[in-house]
Design brief:
- Helices cover about 40% and strands about 20% of the residues.
- The protein is built from 25 helices and 22 strands.
- β9, α11 (about 295-310) and β10 form a beta-alpha-beta unit.
- The longest helix is centred in the first third of the chain and has 33 residues, at about 70-100.
- The radius of gyration is 34 Å and the shape is globular.
- Necessary for flagellar biosynthesis. May be involved in translocation of the flagellum.
- This is Flagellar biosynthesis protein FlhF.
Amino acid sequence: MRFLGANSREAMRQVRAALGDEALILANRHTEQGVEILAMAESAAPTSSEVTSYKQPEPQVPPAREVPVSTDQAQVQAFEAMSARLLEEMRDMRALLARDRSGPEAGGTAGEQFVRAILEAGFSQALAEEVVASLPEELADVEALDERAMAWLVRQLSKRLVGLDDEAAFMDRAGIVALVGPTGVGKTTTTAKLTARYVMRHGTRPVALVTTDSFRIGAHEQLRIYSRLLDVPMYALNADQPVSDLLERMKGKSCVLIDTVGMSQRDQRVIEQIGHLRGGNTSVRLVLLLNSASQPETLEEVVVRYRQAAQAAGGEISDCIITKLDEAGRLAPVLDIIMRHGLRLLFVSHGQRVPEDMALAEPVSLIEQCLANRVPLARATTSPTPPDNSSRGAGNLLGQGRRLATVLLALRERLPAFDGLEAVWNLLGLPASVQQQRFDALLADHPRAGQAHGMLWSERRRVPGEHWAMPDVALNAEGTWLALPLLQHRQVAGQQARLESALQHHDAGVHLMNGLPDAEAGDWLERQGLSWCSQVRGSLRVAHAGERHSLAALESMAEAAGQVRCRFRGAPARLMLAALPVEVNFKGSRRERSGFDAQAWFGEVRDAESGKALARRYWIVPAGLSRDPEPLLLALLQADVLPQLARRAWQRLEPTEAGDLRGDVRLLMASGLATVAAHLDFAEDEAAMDLRAELLGLGGGRRRRRDVALLESLLQLFLVRDAIRHLGLGERETG
């Protein structure tokens, strides 16, 4: 029987359900749909005696023509070898069945293990599903949550917890800050702690304290004691008085902290209180205090009600402080609520001492603390539910929105000129005349000073099946492609002129080319002493040891130079390298000379798993190249995919759906998406792994070719971004 599952564990579950625990696995393979297993019931398998009888059949009447004994023996040996391999695979798959039968206690799938770890730390199921929806393919088959897996989990959770980059970002900002929250949350003590930090940083002169708490007995006196100790003035304000009534008395005070009346989140007067704080023309920053020892349901209600009250009063609450951390059994529930509501966590308070028992919130440290104190789930009553990416309700819309914003921010920080690509997309839907004006202004300043360290020059011919040529791509000093390419038809004519222009305007000192440079350009590169590398055909004739041969014919003479990991056509591969010194003539050279000294590089691309040869590539670099050639060779190899990805994106950007869209704008949008998708597919660092997973999660699925899946996800990301942008504008611009 044939079974097909999304992964090996799912397929094995189907096998066990249909054939029982003693099923025999005959074969398994990976397909585009998942993992395919061929299995049979043990009762249907031949017995050892049957196998023996098959190997040693009953004597037969000899045929008229005698078959050599050696041939018969070879057949028997081949069958025995196949049987041994089959039995070994049966043992391996039987062990997998045994592990699968143990169920969640043995760990479960990678997604289930991550969900369980998040729940055991005290975070919610909704947050767990949101996080695991972005599980990278590199971690999809982990057997246990090892150090690498836990590091990914810490990164995913901590990036959802927004804090201050440093204390100065809060302390050096002048204005009025009001601490709000329920009764007993610790507002007065926290006010004193913040005041002490202001005084330590700015002195006593610019700081003032204000209390509006006239309900509690001794409330004024408690804050007054702190004001005397800190040597700062304190003012009392009735609950129904606007802050503007005190402005005349607080002239010269740049830092004013208000200790407000504690009110239940269900008290209707919360709206009135916040309205009085914001009365007049005074700008007041509201900071919500959350008691980490409270029940999650209570904390959820506090956040929702207080933010609604602030909105009703014409303000907003975007900052918070956690209090009474020393009294909390678990930290994760309050952090979960802060993350899901998109609040910024400023400080964490953990005791009564002023100001010692308050620290700047450090997201990574707080998340590590939560995960270090996990409590095993009661399996009889609670078990983690694997995330279901196919149906996301309205409750996850905020989470999806945050993920979209996070992905865009990460792309801006990672890829140079990504803001330029966004600016090109902003032209979508504008009248053609407006597009032209803004398009010209945008490209006149691209690349910006210091962005382009090198150039990847595309072939000077049309992409097959299209009427346009792949734009050129600039590289920064780290070798990262700029997200916004450069259109070929907007550049000067002539190869040498283009090289000179790139050096003059962008200080580009590295040039990657398809094909050898022509004679004039080659001579100029030699005179300038610039680094360059050309990807060429195997039929290129060069001189070696006084004789001329094609590069392909010389490959066997090249000296092996190791191997590097790479990706080829969206899948992991290995590039086997070899090198050979040669002499090469530039194209179109009319001078009488033997050629210039160069190094020929030979590359064989092999599948990372099977070792099967996939492609061969050839490169020429100058013999005196002053840098490691491997990054240049890889960049040219990886650039092979750009025209294909750009063509796919071009076809998806139909003018009928996008509205008025100039051809050159459409080409830059498509080629920019291709450049970003290819970069993310090739990059191997952890940040790229996380970003890939986030993108593929937003795209709603994964394909066999990861680069294509990334391109589709980027396209969806930009389309959603554009829709949101225009909704914010209310209508499309007209001029």
